[in-house]
Specification:
The protein is mainly alpha-helical. 59% of the residues lie in helices and 5% in strands. Helix 2 crosses helix 3.
Length: 124
């Protein structure tokens, strides 16, 4: 059994025009493959292909592709803000307790003991 001849494929010339590979001009030099870095690579479309194959509309897929990373970014920013606020609240509470204990003398120590006793009572 003989193999079939290779069919010509479409090639884009440097001037932007297209021609078949069997009709290339004599001066044509095929370009070296372009190196694509990771940050320049097109996004992976696997999820979009699966969604379209399962019957989800193209609009829903486009919305997921667009709003998915946007939602992740927004949630990350919110989480970072909440973490910073929690850290500030802990630092300020520690500062207030330290100042009350230091400056308050006997009254400050009594207040700290009352707060500690109240905390222990709530945990039971």
């Amino acid at each position: 059994m003989e193999s079939l001849p290779e069919l010509p494929h479409v090639v884009q010339l440097p001037d932007g025009t297209h021609t078949y590979s069997n009709q290339l001009p004599a001066t044509y030099q095929p370009a070296a493959p372009q190196v694509v870095h990771v940050h320049q690579a097109p996004p992976d479309r696997t999820v979009a292909r699966l969604a379209l194959g399962s019957g989800v509309g193209a609009g829903a897929v486009a919305a997921g592709v667009y709003f998915g990373p946007l939602l992740v970014g927004a949630l990350t920013a919110i989480a970072a803000n909440l973490a910073l606020l929690a850290f500030l609240a802990v630092a300020m509470a520690w500062g207030v307790v330290t100042v009350v204990k230091t400056v308050g003398g006997t009254h400050g120590k009594a207040a700290a003991k009352t707060v500690a006793r109240t905390r222990r009572g709530r945990r039971r």
